[in-house]
Amino acid sequence: MPSLSVFGAQWGDEGKGKVIDLLADRVHVVVRYQGGANAGHTVVVDGQKWILHLIPSGILHPGIVNVIAAGVAVDPITLLGEIDGLMKRGVDVTPRNLRLSASAHVIFDQHKRLDALNERWKGEGRIGTTGRGIGPCYADKASRTGLRIGDLLDPAHCAARLRANLAEKNALIERVHEEVPMDVEELVSRYTAVGKRLAPFVTDTGAELRAAWRAGKELLFEGAQGVMLDLDHGTYPYVTSSSTGPGGIPSGAGVPPQAIGRSIGIAKAYCTRVGEGPFPTELMDAEGERLRAAGHEYGSTTGRPRRAGWFDAVAMRYTLSLTGADGWVMTKLDILGGFGPLKIGVAYHRDGERFTEWPSHLSSFDGLEVEYEDHPGWPEDIAAVRRMEDLPEACRGYVARLEELVGVPVVMLSVGAERDAVLSRGL
Ligand code: IMP
Predict the structure, then answer these.
(1) pLDDT number for residue 42
(2) Which value, in Å, is the radius of gyration of the alpha carbons in the chain?
């Protein structure tokens, strides 16, 4: 299998963890290149559930190298907790199978604190972040006031930079937010200790990835969040703070664009979104409640109920064209059993104008109406089906229609949480 990028083609939570886990034993290296512990990638193996926030989903396969690259915002305390949690459940995590970039930026307690305070400050205009400090950490990175993993390894240097960072953050906390400042020396001693524990994993991951690629090894780039949450191309300002699609790989992982190979988008057979922001096909009624309950649509990182709605072919066509996806994996198709008629969003309308392409230029989505196409549902439970020809006819028709509307082939269907609950169509 050539190297490939697996990314979220909707608003996140598409089921990327499962697909990456499934593909991991066909590659040598799995790489996280952006985002942080705002992600919650769920993998189910032999009835056991694993939720990974920072460690790549290849960790459950012996012999795979897992890389947390420079573009990731790393909360080192969460990372150590995740390593300890995996070890306790019998998964070996060593510097042989986990590599951490010295250039990745560090999320400190002050970033999480400011994430919450900024949301409070915004009030009605809040984003509904995961509270994991993502925005404030990437803001420090862009302002060049952040610390990187490599800085944690030199206690004197780390202490000096952390004190400087906290001086500014405490001024904000005290004078703008009128809250109790952070204890600088407690943070300095805690984080310098963390650096010692992480040191064996730290390396120049970009150099290692380029060498692996040149040597013909296959790399799998594990996207987090979804393209509709991309900092530049998503529903700004209701987005995360990184480049979530394959476009984020070269800079985030430190590899040439040619190293990406194929790109595969992951999308549910319907849509969900967690947090605030535009979601044209959202169901605000009992049907939405039913979909949320059927799909267990509660955040794996925050436990928040996800907003649920019909498949949005306009948004999906946009994310697949933006990323040049070669194919896509449709997940959670089993959840739609018993629903119907199913609706598919095919265009938007506002003020007499019809949009068949994602209207990125609009500053607000207020008043946008969705044009739907109806599709017959199917009453059967398809969770045990493993071949296309065994799917109910209406279900096959639904898949074919979505493929036609988005113009990119479905290369795999997922009908359950377990590794083997898939129908392969070339992937
Ligand atoms: P942040 O990334 O925590 O700053 O949150 C920004 C927006 O992205 C919020 O709407 C979050 O709910 C959303 N978000 C961040 N990470 C994820 C994810 O992994 N899945 C789904 N939504 C996410």
Answers:
(1) 87
(2) 22
